[in-house]
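Changelog note: in this version the structure field was regenerated for every chain. One regenerated record is shown below for reference.
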Amino acid sequence: MDEYNINQSGEARREPQVNTELLARWTSVLFWLVIVSVIVDLLTSENISEIFPALNFAGQILKKAAAVGYGIILWIISSESVYYRNAAICQFIFAVLGIILIPVSGESDFLVAVPAALVSVVIGMTGVYYEINGHTEVLQDVDLVLSEKWHRLWKWYIGTSLGLIAGTVFTVLIPLLGMLFVLASTIGMLVVSVLKIIYIYKMSKAFRAYTAQQAV
């Protein structure tokens, strides 16, 4: 018996206050957009870019397009949670900043690149916060277990992000300790990314299952 059935077995369960059919359709699209984003990140990684420089620029454009598409979908489902609307706005700002940063390079652009990059990081983290809270909220009456997993995922995300920042600082002060922090945090971020893909898939599955059950 899966989590969806377990969570729906109680006699006193509440009917979802969200459009499960809408969420089933668009969270499925979100799932594939996340997959595309992961592939693009691999193609634009430093090692791949050195071997195939032409892929980097194209990959950066594709990455921003995926971010805009992600934001559009979050905006579409924002009728089900205000968190999604805020997350969509962050996605749009993040994409615009990313496009601005593409041609910025070299020491002459340092004063522009660093503040823009810092703002981009903050906006990105804020967007993740709103998105995860949106997932947590809309799942509460459909799959409480998965809803709580999303809540815990945010804690893991902020923990690994702060660890990565701390590791970068320690790399300058205590190189070995800093490298260990960065390594551990990078592995943590990878785990969080994989869990996000799994949770979005399960979320879409839960909404599809509930919608099908209601249609019977």
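Spot check on this record: Residues 175-215 form the longest helix (41 residues). Residues 93 and 150 are 24 Å apart (CA to CA).
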